[in-house]
Amino acid sequence: MALVELEAKDPTPIYAQLDRGLRAAIATGRLRVGDQLPTVRQLAVELRVNANTVARVYAELERAGILETRRGVGSFVAATAADARPAGEKARGLTAFVTRVLADAAAAGFSIDDVIGALAERRHRAGR
């Protein structure tokens, strides 16, 4: 099985599919902290994509702290599964959570101000 699967029919750009695929491999434990990735050239040949595309994704993942490149040695996984989640996933999850909480609060007869007040009170008590 290949490290990452790319779908030619997927309208998502190749670099985005590769980014998502590498993050998913880390998030699911197929790649772990310290694992070495194929070289840019090796992965490009395996996936039949331009080496510049792979290099771009590796560089972006390195800037995000997901990968670590050691000059002359290679690229290695530097992030845990939780840290490798795609950018924005945490924010989307929080937004969905808040939406559910507010819907439940409204169904129970509470306003957003009631919820915020209760959260502020809980935060204040936890700070003691």
Walkthrough of the structure:
The chain is mostly helical. The protein has two domains: about 15-80, Winged helix-like DNA-binding domain superfamily/Winged helix DNA-binding domain (Arc Repressor Mutant, subunit A), CATH 1.10.10.10; about 90-125, no CATH class. The protein has five helices and two strands. It has helices at about 15-25, 40-45, 50-65, 90-105, 110-125; strands spanning about 65-70, 75. The protein has a two-stranded antiparallel sheet with strand order 1-2. Strand 1 and strand 2 (about 75) form a beta hairpin. The termini are far apart.
Relevant terms:
2 strands; 128 residues; Arc Repressor Mutant, subunit A; mainly alpha; 6% strand; 2 domains
Supply the helix-strand structural class: mainly alpha
Tell me the helix content: 40-55%
Shape: elongated
CATH topology tier name of the largest domain: Arc Repressor Mutant, subunit A
Estimate the strand proportion: 5-15%
**CATH-defined architecture of the largest domain:** Orthogonal Bundle
CATH superfamily of the largest domain: Winged helix-like DNA-binding domain superfamily/Winged helix DNA-binding domain
Our count of helices gives 5
Could you spell the SSE succession in H and E letters? HHHEEHH
Number of domains: 2
- The averaged pLDDT comes out at 89
State the assembly state of the protein chains: single chain
Note the topology.
Layout: H1 14-27, H2 40-47, H3 51-63, E1 67-70, E2 74-77, H4 89-107, H5 112-126
Antiparallel strand pairs: 1-2
Helix pairs in contact: 1-3, 2-3
